[in-house]
Amino acid sequence: MQESRHRLARKICHGGGGQIRQPYGEGKEDQLAVGLVVNAVALWNTRYLSAAVDQLRAQGRAVS
After folding, report:
1. pLDDT tier, 37 (very low <50, low <70, confident <90, very high otherwise)
2. pTM above 0.90, yes or no
3. 30 touches 22 (CB < 8 A)
4. How far is the C-alpha of 44 from the C-alpha of 47, rounded, in Å?
5. How far apart are CA 22 and CA 15, in angstroms?
């Protein structure tokens, strides 16, 4: 699961080959921004998939 999160972060932060090249202290804002966007994408995906599963179940389809 953690590697999926890192892969998503690399796709979101495409500048510099998906890497923040400043030391942590200097690049802290960039790292926090990428983390915030990754968390927002994960939340959206979770809510979207949950709604899709709910809709399928409401239609009488079995979802495991």
Report:
1. confident
2. no
3. yes
4. 5
5. 12
